[in-house]
């Protein structure tokens, strides 16, 4: 088994674990692809598959009342609390768009999938939103690393620059959420495993 295969297997393993450093891994692999002349397609495909599998598992946990322990871990971070509060308020009005945008928010992929599962979104709606969001977010992270690798030849410098850009974008998003969030998360935790509330799905 060659190094590239092992790397892709490791990427898949990281991608399927909630709250794992998937973005850091994607940026790093994008940077390596730029500096070693590798292809981005396998990285994007493997990471997308792993993230979709993770989303599906979290959705089922939320839908059937088993996601409380993951939500507890999410709530330990103030920025992630704000993400969950924003998702709770907006998920019903613009369901697909909200879940797509949540990928760029702190712990947004994890919190979003759990929340919409607890809200009993129709599986088809969730699948479309998850596929769009995951594909765009994975591509963004890989390209960010690739761009850093193309612009700066020193590996540690290019990785640091790419991570700095990603951290800046995350910090801006978190600041906006903290400003506009009411931090009312009790509703989100109370819906886990509860009755169906999504208007698109008949009772």
How would you explain this protein's 3D organization?
The protein has 203 residues and is mainly alpha-helical. The protein has one domain. The protein contains 10 helices and no strands. It has helices at residues 3-15, 22-36, 41-63, 68-75, 78-90, 95-101, 108-118, 123-151, 155-180, 186-191. The N and C termini lie far apart (51 Å). Residues 181-203 have low confidence and may be disordered.
Which helices and strands appear, and what pairs or packs with what?
Blueprint: H1 3-15, H2 22-36, H3 41-63, H4 68-75, H5 78-90, H6 95-101, H7 108-118, H8 123-151, H9 155-180, H10 186-191
Subcellular location: Cell membrane
Membrane topology: Multi-pass membrane protein
Main location: membrane
What can be said about this structure in brief?
InterPro entries: DedA_domain, VTT_dom. By secondary structure, the protein is an all-alpha fold.
Task: Provide key terms for this protein.
single chain, 203 residues, mainly alpha, 10 helices, 74% helix, globular, transmembrane, DedA_domain, transmembrane helix, cell membrane
Number of E-state strands: 0
* Mean pLDDT metric: 78
Overall tally of structural domains: 1
Quaternary arrangement of the chains shown?
single chain
Share of residues in helices: over 70%
Summed up, the helix count is 10
Instruction: Report Rg.
Output: 17 Å
Structural class: mainly alpha
How much of the sequence lies in strands comes to under 5%
Task: Using the alpha-carbon principal axes, give the shape.
Answer: globular
Distance between the termini: 51 Å
Name the poorly predicted regions. 181-203
Described by strand count, sense and barrel closure, the largest sheet is: none
Q: List the helices and strands in order.
A: HHHHHHHHHH
